[in-house]
Design brief:
By secondary structure, the chain is an alpha/beta fold. It is built from 14 helices and 13 strands. The chain folds into two domains: 139 residues, Glycerate kinase, domain 1 (Rossmann fold, 3-Layer(aba) Sandwich), CATH 3.40.50.10350; 230 residues, Glycerate kinase, domain 2 (Alpha-Beta Complex), CATH 3.90.1510.
Length: 389
């Protein structure tokens, strides 16, 4: 019997690899001789780098970069342990690692000032190492600068009417007078950039970056209006000056408003493609190959609910397994409202691991043992159908 274990992390308690290990441990009590194939998964959000590095036996690169407030912060990215289809090394970068909200104290959150420069520094480091395939996960950012800081780190010159470099932050976008891409990192033209993006917000307007994501980054009502106007002006100016040579007609593109407009920035300057995060991950870790000839696939996440079917890891794993007619079981920390939506999509069964009502701290601390016990019980039920009558 071949069993593929492909879960996401259980946030705040277990990494994806630790989840896979716990499930394997439980199943081995009943099926000690089965073949187990563990493939840590993610959907492009927090934990994607670690999951993909674990799945491919890659490595983590630690760096000190420019944080959202312009001060040094510790950040990281991953290099996968297997080459892509074109034979290139792949770097996986979470924007939040360098430009995330967690780097900004609550009292200092101000998207008029925060920058994505550090994310650009991570990209530069990867390019300088000869990497020519980059997967960038958007989400959790503290910025609203349309990727302007990232562009500057990559060598793009943004200047105001006095020919001075544009300051960091979303407010400064309204003073852009000239953009010069002649010093853009030369390796960009040879690099494939895929962006894990699971929102469809445009750059500006009532569903744009400033209006929807600005408040969580510290934006007041007045700031939102100022930031939205700055993004519109910034995109218009770039389109006027680079429209013939770059992909700058993307400000209305679904996802352009992701991560404070970083979606626009990567499409405009890096010619990046925006895709559902889980689709990028399943392809990059070659999940379909691992599933070949499998008898069962087990997946899961911290909470399975009605949103799981909209691009979360269990749904992505289910889609891969369904193409090969492999049954799928989901295990989660708990089941939320409309969790049965994923059963309608074809998952065979879902199981929560919490045995009783407990304080949250206890639930998180006991996740590993609860997960192992649940996996053992699932395996025991399966074994009943294998007993010869």
């Amino acid at each position: 019997m071949k069993i593929v274990i492909a879960p996401d992390s259980f946030k705040e308690s277990l990494s994806a690899l630790e989840v896979a290990n716990a499930i394997e441990q439980g199943f081995k009590v009943i099926f000690p001789d089965a073949e187990y194939c563990k493939v840590p998964m993610a959907d492009g959000g927090e934990g994607t780098v670690q999951a993909m590095v674990d799945a491919t036996q890659g490595e983590i690169i630690n760096l000190t970069v420019t944080g959202p407030l312009g001060l040094p912060v510790d950040a990281f990215y991953g290099v996968l342990g297997q080459l892509d289809e074109a034979g290139n090394q792949t770097a996986v970068i979470e924007m939040a690692a360098a430009s995330g909200l967690h780097h900004v104290p609550l009292t200092h959150r101000n998207p008029l000032l925060t920058t994505s420069f550090g994310t650009g520094e991570l990209i530069v480091d990867a390019l300088n190492r000869g990497i020519r395939h980059i997967i960038l996960g958007l989400g959790g950012s503290a910025t609203n600068d349309a990727g302007a800081g990232m562009m500057q780190a990559l060598g793009v010159k943004l200047s105001d009417i006095a020919d001075a470099p544009l300051p960091f932050g979303g407010a400064a976008l309204n003073t852009l007078h000239q953009i010069d891409i002649q010093s853009l990192h030369p390796a960009i033209k040879d690099c494939v950039v895929e962006v894990a993006c699971d929102v469809d917000n445009p750059l500006c307007g009532p569903r744009g970056a400033s209006a929807i994501f600005g408040p969580q980054k510290g934006a007041t009502t007045e700031m939102i209006e100022q930031l939205d106007q700055a993004l519109e002006y910034f995109a218009h100016t770039i389109n006027q000056q680079l429209g013939q040579s770059m992909n700058t007609y993307c400000r209305l593109h679904p996802g352009a408003g992701a991560a404070g407009g970083m979606g626009f920035g990567v499409m405009a300057i890096l010619n990046a493609s925006l895709k559902p995060g889980v689709d990028i991950v399943t392809k990059s870790v070659k999940l379909a190959e691992y599933c070949r000839d499998a008898d069962l696939v087990i997946t899961g996440e911290g909470r399975i609910d009605g949103q799981t079917v909209f691009g979360k890891t269990p749904m992505g794993v289910l889609n891969v397994a369904k193409l090969q007619n492999i049954p799928v079981i989901g295990i989660s920390g708990c089941l939320g409202q409309n969790a049965d939506a994923i059963l309608v999509e074809g998952m065979n069964a879902i199981f929560p691991i919490i045995p009783s009502l407990q304080p949250l701290e206890q639930i998180l601390s006991e996740a590993q043992i609860n997960l192992t016990n649940t996996a053992r019980n699932i395996a025991a039920i399966m074994s009943l159908s294998l007993v010869k009558k």
